[in-house]
Amino acid sequence: MEDQEGGHAPVSEELEERNDRRPGDALRAADVSRAFAGVHALRGVTLELRRHEVLGLIGPNGAGKTTLVNVLSGFDFPSPGTVELEGRDITSWSPHRRGRSGLARTFQHSRSFAALTVRENVEVAALGSGVRPRAARRRAARRLELLGLEARGAQEAGSLAHGDERKLGVARALASEPRYLLLDEPAAGLPEAEVPEFAAVVRSVRDEHEAGVLLIDHNMALVMDVCDRIQVLDQGRTLAEGAPADIRANLDVAAAYLGEAPVAEQ
Question: 244 near 57, Cβ under 8 Å?
Answer without folding.
Answer: no
